[in-house]
Write a structure and sequence with these properties.
five-stranded antiparallel beta sheet, alpha+beta, Beta-Lactamase, 40% helix, six-stranded antiparallel beta sheet, elongated, 746 residues
């Protein structure tokens, strides 16, 4: 009997392993396709290795629905399930929600399998295991619900489970009943034979199947020969609940009926020395263990752990009613609970409050088992102090609340992007940012990208690409998204890779989005003011510079040497101021998004040849030579005019810092991903180490005696990012500097 129950338990554990393997398949793949699913299940060889399982399936959650997505084997009967919403069945839904909230396999109550619609006499069951986003198991119920992707499940007929596992035991009539509910007990399996059993040899053994409790009943059939003392003893052993013969042996040992314990140990192949060690281990266990006479409701045994945890001597507990150690249960309630156990019910692990001898109270988690002996029924209870665990859970809740308040007050919206599934979990604040309700939800990355302004999307994608390639540790970018009102608002997105797989590949990106529209408007007002002032200055300044040019050329007659020197100085400063105004206006237009870019495929080699021709005279001014090295047929997507402006800026800086007769190399190459990289290298002194981090900032100059406004590289950076590229500098002091621009492939 016990062997039969054990075989059924082990078979169900085998089913669990199949489902855990299926979950691992989803965790190991960015997306599991139908053929991958079929190949995985086919390799399991269900009929030979896991008899009883009719189908292994996958359910992908979709806006509150649970449609069956994949099934295997995909025969005609199993294919009926495709598209069926399992949430419409209350029994299946209850099991799925419990699995979702616990993260553990859960067995459903009795159901009719979808393939058995024409055969209602067959009772089935379904085991569900949740699939979450991410490679680590979510720690809280809230996190489990937020990260749920779907479920894998296995369906089986209970008759197949029993018959394929234990066959037809000689002389015994088996019956399997679902007793999870005291109100409704369902027969899962009983043989078709009508032979009457011998009532004095009826035995039962519970089978705990995760959240369900099944009762395996065995009746000796007439003429089977089962009736000897040895046979009866073997069946009595099967009546021990949950931990069977070992628990009976322990009970007899603890109660002092040593001879019974030794006899049973001998039949089990356990030596007296091993029995002593077994009892000593229980005696010294850190948890509280109390044995209660189920009829007299008196404590008959307490281990050392009970003495330590409760503050009583062991002899002070013996003979007392069990409610002496409880702060939240009186004698009547305990008596009712014990009676339910005696009547064949089960008691799940539950929380209670224990009271110490000094009156202090602490939380415990308790499990109980009923043990039948010749002297009567006893209840063994094991209680574990969970004070530390509850305190940790409380601290975690408070931490989450503080984080939530901090995010709410900061206006930042958390996001968590699972790169394998492409699903982004968005914090509730994201809805507020977009003008909707503050509700957490999951959405595909494509739907988020659809909200981004088309002009800003290339730059955002480039930042993400660099992050995922490991070329940047994090990204911080500003871009526009569509508000619920239809307007464009500005957000600042900050993110980093938060999880990698065993090979170091990124599998999760976490970050925040914050509404910076107000800040942008303020900046726009400032830029508009600067632009207005600059524009108002440019017209009169142009007249002043032109007048000084005429005076310098002698239109007002020959000037005295001192006067000529002052006029030339004023003319040079006027031109420099005019250049500064133009740069300020350029930068303002680029940063505000008002600078329109004409993105088109460009032959990079041809553009560099043109740049060399256009800038040759400027290079000659500094006695520098230009050389172009670019492959033919290399194309990139860019704004031709602005890319020429960027290259011209690079060449201008290179010429200023080049030694006499130095070479400036204009080059291009293709990356392994097919993107185009343009570079301009000089042979100058290089960029000082302390200046590298500031080189693309506003009004930054390595040397102020080289001229310029300090805005050229800042403008280049904005233009490159607007074109979906990136810009950087590499330099070794004393060995020149190279400026790079990487652009999307055409």
């Amino acid at each position: 009997m016990q062997e039969i129950a054990s075989a059924l338990r082990n078979r169900i554990l085998d089913y669990e392993q199949v489902l855990k393997g299926a979950v691992a398949l989803f965790q190991a793949s960015e997306k599991v396709e139908r053929d991958e699913w079929t190949t995985y299940v086919r390799a399991l060889d269900l009929q030979a290795s896991y008899p009883g399982v009719r189908v292994i399936g996958y359910v992908h959650m979709d806006r509150g629905r649970a449609p069956v997505t994949y099934v295997a084997p995909a025969d005609e009967l199993n294919a009926r399930a495709i598209g069926v919403d399992l949430y419409t069945d209350p029994v299946r839904r209850a099991a799925m929600e419990q699995a979702r909230d616990t993260g553990e396999p859960v067995m459903s109550g009795p159901v009719q399998l979808l393939r058995d619609r024409e055969e209602p006499q067959h009772v089935g069951a379904v085991m569900f295991l949740p699939v979450y986003r991410g490679s680590t198991a979510p720690a809280t119920m809230k996190e489990r619900r937020a990260r749920l992707v779907g479920f894998v499940y296995g369906s089986f007929r209970v008759r197949d489970l029993v018959e394929r596992t234990v066959g037809d035991p000689t002389g015994i009539r088996l019956r399997l009943v679902d007793v999870s509910s005291q109100e409704t007990q369902t027969v899962l399996f009983e043989p078709e034979t009508t032979a009457r059993s011998a009532p004095h040899l009826k035995r039962a053994e519970p089978i705990i199947v995760r959240s369900r409790t099944w009762r395996l009943e065995a009746n000796a059939l007439p003429g089977s020969g089962i009736g000897s003392a040895a046979d009866r003893a073997r069946l009595v052993l099967a009546a021990c609940l949950a931990i069977g013969a070992l628990l009976t042996m322990l009970t007899w040992s603890l109660l002092g009926t040593a001879q019974h314990a030794r006899d049973l140990a001998r039949r089990m192949g356990i030596t007296s020395e091993e029995l002593k060690r077994f009892r000593a281990a229980v005696d010294a266990h850190q948890d509280t263990m109390l044995m209660v006479d189920a009829d007299k409701l008196r404590i008959v045994y307490a281990n050392e752990g009970a003495s330590r945890n409760l503050g009583y001597r062991r002899d002070e507990l013996i003979g007392q009613p069990p409610d002496i150690v409880f702060a939240d249960r009186d004698g009547a309630r305990l008596a009712a609970e014990y009676q339910r156990l005696k009547d064949g019910g089960t008691t799940p692990i539950y929380q209670a409050l224990h009271r110490r001898k000094d009156g202090s109270v602490f939380p415990v988690e308790i499990s109980r088992e009923l043990v039948h002996t010749e002297s009567g029924p006893y209840i063994l209870g094991v209680a574990r102090d969970i004070s530390a665990r509850l305190e940790a859970e409380r601290a975690l809740r408070e931490s989450e609340q503080r984080l939530g308040l901090a995010l709410q007050s900061s206006g930042l919206a958390l996001f968590d992007w699972d790169l394998r599934t492409g699903i982004v979990h968005l914090g509730g604040q994201w809805g507020t940012v977009l003008g909707g309700e503050p509700v957490e939800h999951d959405t595909p990355i494509e739907q988020l990208e659809a909200l981004v302004h088309p002009d800003d999307l290339p730059g955002l994608r480039e930042q993400i690409r660099l992050l995922l390639k490991g070329e940047s540790s994090a990204y911080r970018t500003e871009h526009r998204v569509r508000h619920a009102s239809g307007e464009w608002i500005w957000i600042e997105s900050v993110a980093k890779v938060s999880e990698r797989d065993t090979d170091g590949r990124p599998i999760r990106v976490t970050g925040t989005n914050g509404d910076i529209t107000a800040r942008k408007r303020l900046a726009d007002m400032k830029n508009a003011f600067v632009a207005a002032v600059s524009h108002e200055l440019r017209t009169p300044l142009a007249g002043i510079v032109a007048s000084l040019e005429l005076i310098k050329e002698g239109s007002a007659g020959e000037l005295p040497p001192d006067a000529r020197r002052f006029v030339e100085m004023a003319h040079a400063n006027g031109e420099r101021l005019n250049e500064l105004i133009n740069d300020v206006l350029d930068l303002e237009r680029a940063e505000s998004g008002r600078l329109r870019l004409e993105l088109e495929p460009i032959d990079v080699g041809v553009l560099l040849e043109e740049a060399a021709t256009l800038n040759a005279s400027y290079a000659e001014k500094y006695s520098a030579q230009l050389r172009v090295e670019a492959p033919t047929g290399l194309s990139a997507v860019a704004d031709r005019k602005r890319l020429q402006q960027i290259v011209a800026n690079f060449v201008s800086n290179a010429a200023k810092f080049s030694p006499k007769n130095g070479e400036i190399r204009l080059a291009a190459r293709r990356t392994p991903e097919g993107r185009a990289v343009v570079s301009v290298a000089d042979q100058g002194p290089g960029v000082p180490e302390e200046f590298k981090t500031r080189i693309f900032g506003r009004f930054e100059q390595a040397k102020h005696d080289k001229g310029g406004t300090g805005l050229g590289l800042a403008i280049c950076k904005v233009l490159v990012e607007r074109m979906g590229g990136r810009i950087w500098c590499e330099s070794t002091p004393g060995k020149g500097a190279t400026f790079f621009v990487e652009l999307p492939a055409a």
